[in-house]
Specification:
With 178 residues, this protein is an all-alpha fold. The chain contains four helices and no strands. The protein has helices spanning 4-57, 67-98, 119-147, 158-177. α3 (119-147) runs antiparallel to α4. The N and C termini lie far apart (53 Å).
């Protein structure tokens, strides 16, 4: 019986070591994913800056009656890109936070709304940011279509309907979590 005990302990130690290695590899892969998502956010932010400057660079070539509309839609597009970049940044930070052990300290103090402890909390934050981005994107495209003289029809209510459904599901999720 005593000869089986060291064998059992050795096997348990090997399994524990293997699990630690797998978990460390998983943390490395998740960190790489978070960095790639962060890089995508940086690219979106740069595209937002580009859209912002393009909007002002085309002001001289636009009819005076369309300047305000073109300026508004261009700025809405830039804001939409910035909001999408924020979604990517929050997702990147959220992934890192969720896979950081409780004994590991973060190098910065995060704002209260970003102190994520569960995946559901990250999902709620992302849904709120995506909803805001959807609203701004819809308003931008709606303004562009109106400036182009296109007639609005029933199909233009699809996106607001989707926004409503996502808002309703977010509301129900928050209500259930309380």
């Amino acid at each position: 019986m005593q000869s089986l005990l060291p064998s059992y302990i050795h096997r348990q130690h090997r399994q524990s070591t293997l699990m630690k290695r797998i978990f460390n590899l998983l943390k490395l892969v998740i960190t790489a994913i978070a960095l790639l998502v962060f890089a995508a956010g940086v690219i979106l932010a740069l595209l937002g800056v580009f859209e912002f400057f393009v909007t002002f660079s085309h002001l001289a070539s636009v009819d005076k009656e369309h300047v305000v509309g073109m300026l508004a839609t261009g700025l809405l597009k830039a804001i939409d890109l910035f909001l999408m970049a924020v979604v990517f940044f929050v997702f990147s930070i959220g992934i890192l936070i969720l896979f950081t052990g409780p004994d590991e300290l973060l190098p910065v103090v995060l704002p209260e709304w970003l102190q994520i402890k569960k995946f559901v909390e990250l999902k709620v934050i992302l849904w709120e940011a995506i909803l805001t981005s959807l609203v701004i994107s819809y308003l931008s495209s709606l303004a562009e279509q109106r400036m182009a003289g296109k007639q609005l029809n029933i199909f233009h209510l699809i996106i607001p309907g989707v926004i409503f459904l996502i808002s309703l599901s977010l509301f129900l999720l928050k209500k259930r979590e309380k």
